[in-house]
Structure of NRDE family protein:
Amino acid sequence: MCLIVFAWQVIPGVPLVAAGNRDEFLSRPTASAAWWTDRPQIFAGRDLQDGGTWMGVTREGRFAAVTNFRDPSVKRPEAPSRGALVADFLAASSTPEEFIAALETHASEYNGFNLLVGDRNTLVWFSNAAPQDERNGKPLAAGIYGLSNGSLDSPWPKVVRTKAQFASLICQGAPEDAYFEMLTDTTRAPDCRLPKTGVSLEWERVLSAVCIQSPEYGTRTSTVVRLFGDGSAALDERPLP
């Protein structure tokens, strides 16, 4: 994923509501969300190049999602796939805290990432590239959050805009279609508000949209996830036309 907004412990009976867009090169082979034959407890899309995923749930109500941390200066082609982190958590039996504690010992092997892992009781954000503040690697407090390719709640224009709209939809009890409509916003931020993340100005413009459109790279799918208080989960994925 490259943009995720989520409400944690805000709605009674629904511990987590998350909505996000996956941005990727259009040529990268991908399978739509489905139950995996080799790991039948996982429901997620799949990266057919490296075998991982960007967001998924399980029959037992586990949830995980990953975004890349944008820093072109330290990208290593030989690093392992970050999508494997999502699949590994979903297939594990450890608690979110236990999984992150084990990951911290070798997280530096990966290119920069943000990882969300959780269940109906606990949600943890961990990044191997963001500043090690009091939330990194520890359970999140109840609230509404936004995550793109920087730190959690970095004030990038698309994070701020989408988080505010998402909060409004949560307060309204809006239907699922409203979340998907939110994720189709192709508005680009003005130059004066663009973050400086190490890519060219033209790419900062392209990447500033909630829904990215370019000839070779863009938003491939939108996803809405819910975890329920009874331990079940629901994931709805829609491809971009």
